[in-house]
Design a protein that fits this description.
The complex is a heterodimer of chains A (251) and B (255). Chain A has 251 residues and is of the alpha/beta class. Chain A has helices at residues 17-28, 40-52, 67-81, 104-132, 143-147, 153-173, 192-195, 200-207, 217-228, and strands at 8-12, 32-37, 57-61, 86-89, 135-140, 178-183, 239-240. Chain A is globular, with a radius of gyration of 17 Å. Chain A starts with 7 loop residues before the first strand and ends in an 11-residue tail after the last strand. Chain B has a single domain (12-193, 222-244), classed as Rossmann fold, CATH 3.40.50. Chain B is built from nine helices and seven strands. Chain B has helices at 21-32, 44-56, 71-84, 108-136, 147-151, 157-177, 195-201, 203-210, 221-232, and strands at 12-16, 36-40, 61-64, 90-93, 139-144, 182-187, 243-244. In chain B, helix 2 links the parallel strand 2 (36-40) and strand 3 (61-64). The chains are: A alpha/beta (251), B alpha/beta (255). At the A-B interface, helix 4, helix 5 and helix 6 of A face helix 4, helix 5 and helix 6 of B.
């Protein structure tokens, strides 16, 4: 099967969790993958998993808060694999804190990794996409960016900013046949929730979801892969939230 | 006699970016409904002018000129207001800047300034007031976003996303603070006839843009202030986590 045959995708934060799931699924569907992650060992492992599907892989170690390094990483990925057709702005992290607990350095890192990192990674790949008159950009937001949460408002604000980029870039880049969409995951069995696996805490959370469960990372990747494929050639400025019905809102 | 549900009698409101434009209109309307006002703008002369207008109505006003990106200065501001006027009941996070630029034109410095003023400023102004609001179990926070934050635009994506981040903070804080009777909402202005767009674009261009708005015109600054006043008065006592976009029907979307 190959809805992504011979496409080249750059995925940030692809060393583990959802990012790794996106990389492996998109490789299975025919794409070569550039992996960026802050953790070298995890990035290399994902690259090996991609190569095991028969596709090419390139990986780079980068801190998304380091703007210059992000721009260089994106250019290098394009040089190594030939070009970038698909960019998945996935790198991110969570931090549970109330308003009063969020220090200036916490706030700044949250914004730098999610918002500034995604912006300048996109800025680095856009000129070549414009020239090619082809591009698919997928921003990973969150159910919390859409609907808020009683904790972690700096995370919620950062993830909402990614929805703002999605809407603005969809309009700015449409004339170049560059499509920009967002995926806003609900509860996923990766990262933090993995540590809670089968615990009462996770079971109580899953009980509140209409579909009564969190999903596997690959169930988020299906939305990403759809938006990256020609099946989504008429889709731009939109958001898909695979969340089991937990939040149902207007975008 | 029942109390006027629009009344802000005895309230103290801090309005950032209130030296001119919409911020000044918010200050004047809230004062006319009974609130004392903390005028806050980096433009000193304009801030003093707003304060004079407030004092002329018989209300108290204090003036501050600190940059909203200075979190430390925001904490000091709150202490000084509390000592002189009393605790802050209402915060309107209004300070902001506009800048037209395409993705490739946005430098790291432009990007940082845009997010520092709108997002970091809104965050740390709020953090500075929220402790006392929790103690007093009363607070009204209004974040000024934009129609472009709801719906995007074909230029200025750093501005658009900063304004969307403000909507994200609104939704999160509504949930985090509801238990303390602190209500958090957003206002997303459409086209508004303030001096800034008139100077930058000129009236001819604005008249052409007004033709694209279903109601056929841009708003006056006061028409944005009415939405702010609705949220912060008893009229908004059951309203939190919501957005009103006075935009003449230009954009009609889910929040």
């Amino acid at each position: 099967m190959g809805t992504l045959d011979n496409k080249i995708a750059l995925i940030t934060g692809a060393g583990d969790g959802m990012g790794r799931a996106h990389a492996v699924l998109m490789a299975r569907r025919g794409a070569d993958i550039a992996i960026a992650d802050i953790n070298e060992e995890m990035a290399r492992e994902t690259a090996e998993m991609v190569r095991a599907t028969g596709r090419r892989a390139h990986y780079a170690v980068v801190d998304m808060a380091d703007t210059e390094a992000v721009i260089e990483m994106a250019r290098e990925a394009g040089r190594m694999l030939g070009r970038i057709d698909i960019l998945v702005n996935n790198a991110g992290f969570g931090q549970r804190a109330l308003i009063e607990e969020i220090r200036e350095e916490d706030f700044d890192r949250m914004m730098a990794v999610h918002v500034r990192g995604s912006f300048f990674c996109t800025q680095a790949v856009v000129p070549a996409m414009k020239e090619a008159r082809y591009g698919k950009i997928i921003n990973i937001s969150s159910i919390w960016g859409m609907a808020g949460a009683p904790v972690a408002s700096h995370y919620c604000g950062a993830k909402a900013a990614l929805l703002g980029f999605t809407k603005a870039w969809a309009k700015e880049l449409a004339p170049w046949n560059i499509h920009v969409n967002a995926v806003a995951p609900g509860g996923v069995r990766s990262g933090g929730p993995t540590k809670l696996d089968n615990s009462d805490v996770l079971k109580a959370k899953e009980e509140k979801v209409p579909l009564k469960r969190y999903c596997e990372p690959v169930e988020i990747s299906y939305a990403v892969a759809y938006l990256a494929s020609p099946e989504a050639d008429f889709v731009t400025g939109q958001v898909i939230s695979p969340n089991g019905g937990e939040t149902i809102v207007g975008y | 006699m029942t109390k006027d549900p629009n009344s802000l009698e005895g309230r103290i409101a801090w309005i950032t970016g209130s030296g001119r434009g919409m911020g000044r209109a918010h200050a004047e309307l809230l004062a006319s409904r009974g609130a004392d006002i903390v005028i806050h703008d980096v433009l000193r002369e304009e801030a003093e002018e707003t304060a004079a207008a407030i004092r002329a109505t018989g209300r108290r006003a204090m003036v501050f000129n600190d940059d909203v990106t200075d979190a430390c200065a925001m904490r000091a501001l709150v202490s000084r207001v509390e000592a002189q006027l009393g605790p802050i009941d209402i915060l309107v996070n209004n300070a902001g800047i506009g800048e037209h630029a395409e993705i490739e034109e946005i430098t790291p410095q432009m990007f940082q300034r845009m997010f520092d003023i709108h997002v970091r400023g809104t965050f740390f102004c709020t953090q500075a007031v929220v402790g006392r609001m929790k103690e007093r179990r009363f607070g009204r926070i209004v974040n000024i976003s934009s129609i472009w934050g709801m719906n995007g635009h074909h230029t200025a994506s750093h501005y658009c996303a900063a304004k969307t981040a403000v909507l994200g903070l609104t939704k999160a804080w509504a949930k985090e603070l509801a238990g303390f009777n602190i209500l958090v909402n957003a206002v997303c202005p459409g086209g508004v006839l303030t001096e800034m767009p008139i100077r930058v674009q000129g009236m001819e261009k604005i008249r052409a843009k007004e033709k694209l708005v279903p109601v056929g015109r841009w708003a006056t600054p006061e028409e944005i202030s009415y939405a702010v006043a609705y949220f912060v008065a008893p009229t908004g006592n059951f309203v939190t986590g919501q957005a009103i976009s006075p935009n003449g029907g230009e954009t009609i979307v889910g929040f």
